[in-house]
Amino acid sequence: MQVWRPAAVAAIFVLMWAAAALAEDGATPLFRVFLSDGASLTSYGEWVRMGDKVVFSLPLAAGEAPELQLVSLPASRVDWARTERYADTVRTVHYASTRAEDDFARFSNQVAEVLTGVAREPDAKRRLAMAESARTALAEWPRQHYGYRAADVQQMLSLLDEVISDLRGAAGQDQFQVNLVAATPSPPAETLLPPPTTPELAQELLTASTLAESPTERATLLDRLVSFLDRAADLLPSAWATRVRTAAIGTLSSERATDAAYRKLAASTLDKVSARTRAVDVRGLERLRAETLKADQKLGGRRPAEMAAVLAAIDAGAESARRLRLARDQWKLLEPVYRSYQRSVRPALNALAAATDPLEDIRAQAGPSPRDLKRVMTRFYKARPAVASTNPPEPLAAAHALLQSAWDLADNALKLRLRAVETGSPGRSAEASAAAAGALMLAERARDDIAQAVKMPALP
Q: SS3 letters for 281-332?
């Protein structure tokens, strides 16, 4: 026999359907970024914390679609506890005034459908499972929706617990079970501030400009402040507006002069870095670094980011100069060895050069004549010791290995071509062609590598 409490179920339905008319989404909410000194800046919509920065859009007028100014401030200057409490309050109030009633009505309908299904379900255990599932969803709803209608939900839960108790009895479950309801979110912890007035917006722009770390952003904020003061002159205290405008223009002028001075310093310094690096003037680059730091101090050290880039360029130039100086000193030490090597292999290089045309003929299987072929082979035989007996210095070992390979392929191509001519074998002629092609390619690379290796090092 089913045990059911129609009165309790009816009360739940009444509570769920007692919602007010649906509200349309309102305008974008205004958040606040509270500073450590107690001042606050208005954020049009949510602010974003990015590492050591907080970024938000500062409205420059009242209304639903104001002109916005992007602001980036050091996170260390923000009272985060209060800023986050205020953000929670804004979200709660905005949700309650926009989508909350609509969401609650949809959720209520879903719970009502479940309870209707419970009433129609013939299986007692299935009815109990459905009711308990509905209770879990109902208990979770306030926590997931900023505590909206928490009191109504609590009342529904109390009534639903009675129903579940009866359903347990009908399902043959006589054990006692305590249902704990999760605490709902506490009410808003901060009082919402009214939208900022025109004078307050002007003051916020001024505050943001003093806190901005980037010179570019600081200049942009000051420029926007001057424009704002000009547009809203009739709405601002005259003496205050005049004083702030004069100070802003003066600061802007100083910022621009500073930018120009640092641009000039950077340009002249980078030109010197390039020249002294090419001249391998390590000492000169060290002096340039000290001079640049001194010039920065005279300018007040007001552009640390720009100076860091310039100093990095000086340091990179100095490192390149040191490496180049070491390479040139090594080259000077080995120059006599390089010259000796070049003298030793010159006969081989000359023989390979003289064999270029015959090797091209062999590659194309278009000659040379037997007489020319034998002449080239004789010259190769005489020049062989220049390759085989030369012991290259370590920096030239790879290039000499290429020369050796080119020599061996050329020698093989000449011999194979002679055999092809003697036997009339097309197969031997094709083998000679392949060897000649390899010899020509490797000989060119060997000449280039040797020339590059014995050349005095220079910057790329």
A: CHHHHHHHHHHHHHHHHHCCCCCHHHHHHHHHHHHHHHHHHHHHHHHHHHHH
Q: Which tens digits make up the pLDDT trace of 426-453? A: 999 999 999 999 999 999 999 999 988 8
Q: Are residues 74 and 146 in the same domain?
A: no
Answer whether residue 236 is part of any domain: yes
> What is the domain range of residue 390?
334-453
**Closest C-alpha among 282, 270, 290 to residue 323:** 282
The Cα-based distances of 433 to 23, 59, 377, 410, 446 in angstroms read 89, 80, 16, 10, 20
Is residue 433 a contact partner of residue 363, using CB atoms and an 8 Å limit? yes
Number of domains in the chain: 4
Mean pLDDT, residues 326-342: 91
| 1, pLDDT greater than 50 | no
Q: Whole-structure pTM over 0.70, yes or no?
A: no
Q: Under the phi-then-psi rule, with left for phi > 0, alpha for psi from -120 to 50, and beta for the rest, what region is 365?
A: left
Same domain, 382 and 253: no
Do 14 and 158 fall into the same domain? yes
Residue 192, in any domain of the structure? no
Same domain for 61 and 130?
no
Peptide bond into 368 cis (omega under 30): yes
In degrees rounded to 5, what are phi and psi of residue 125? -70, -35
Residues 222 and 369 in one domain: no
